[in-house]
Design a protein that fits this description.
single chain, 298 residues, alpha/beta, Rossmann fold, DNA polymerase, domain 1, 2 domains, seven-stranded mixed sheet, two-stranded antiparallel sheet, 12 helices, 9 strands
């Protein structure tokens, strides 16, 4: 099963300002596209660590003595780098969201195109599946998931319909779910709204918001002074968290100030927000919502 072209490949790796003998981390290895480009720019003494919790990613291991793949969730980045004897690095790259490969495997349940069991786990060993979210969550909890992570205005009505349907029999497949919610999906916006529904459930199943926050909070300590953070996000919730963390060193409120009123933040942004060109979007539809932010450790 092929992995599609990485989004914003050169822009995100350019953002790392790769040093020949530097140590780098690609926390979302996937098909290895970003990792290969980083290795192309590293010298013989450079080192690249990559993270991916999806067992399928193990099939793409790069045969290069400068490369190490850690088959874990990147929320544990500091712990596993320490285990490898690494305390600080020169750059960290993250390409958030689901890989095209995961969308293209019907049985994983990520795609709205296929009828599959409600799964959506990036880590196939995890206990929480989309089936549990849809069938076992309390009505208010499920409504919050659809509203916050899917940005669906009629989340409450949708949830009420789901609860009514599941009281008669379990909702087992992606097409079951689509059928139940058909009344909320006008034909003209079918793809968009279904994508928002599936996105919301997927984010909950994989705890993506919590993972992103935990990861970002570790980056100031992990990066050397002048080290770079390069993050590609695909929806506004993620992008907001990345933007606020780069600006303020936190997710809520204003940046910390010292006794003299000087702002104390771990990063400075380098350049403006980067989005894909129309040409890239034509070649790779997945790129259409991508946003790249790059920051340098102060």
């Amino acid at each position: 099963m092929s992995y599609h072209d990485p989004v914003l490949l050169f822009e995100s790796v350019d953002g790392l300002a790769v040093k020949q003998e530097g140590v780098y981390v690609d926390v979302t290895f996937g098909g290895g596209g970003h990792s290969k480009e980083i290795l192309n720019r590293l010298g013989e003494k450079g080192k690249l660590f990559a993270f991916d919790q999806d067992p399928d990613a193990l099939n793409n291991v790069i045969d290069d003595e400068r490369f190490v793949l850690i088959p874990e969730n990147f929320r544990f980045i500091k712990q596993f780098l320490r285990f490898k004897g690494v305390k600080q690095v020169d750059g960290i790259l993250a390409d958030l969201g689901v890989s095209s490969h995961q969308f293209d495997i019907p049985e994983r349940g990520f795609s709205t195109r296929f009828d599959a069991e409600l799964d959506m786990r990036m880590d196939t060993q995890s206990d929480l599946t989309a089936y549990h979210v849809i069938n076992d969550y309390e009505e208010e909890e499920l409504s919050n998931v659809l509203f916050q992570y899917g940005e669906l205005r009629n989340a409450r009505k949708m949830t009420s319909e789901i609860v009514k349907a599941r009281s008669e029999k379990p909702i087992e497949t992606s097409f079951d779910l689509k059928k139940i919610l058909q009344g909320f999906i006008p034909k003209s916006k079918e793809h968009k709204i279904l994508a928002q529904i599936f996105q919301a459930v997927r984010i909950e199943v994989n705890q993506e918001v919590e993972v992103l926050k935990e990861f970002l909070l570790q980056t100031p300590e992990l990066l050397k002074k002048g080290g770079r953070l390069s993050v590609i996000s695909y929806h506004s919730l993620e992008d907001r968290l990345v933007k606020r963390f780069i600006q303020n060193g936190k997710f809520e409120g204003e940046a910390e100030k010292d006794f003299y009123g000087n702002v104390s933040v771990p990063f400075k942004k380098t350049g403006k927000l980067i989005v894909p060109t129309q040409e890239e979007i034509k070649k790779n539809n997945r790129a259409r919502s991508a946003k790249l932010r790059i920051a340098e450790k102060i």
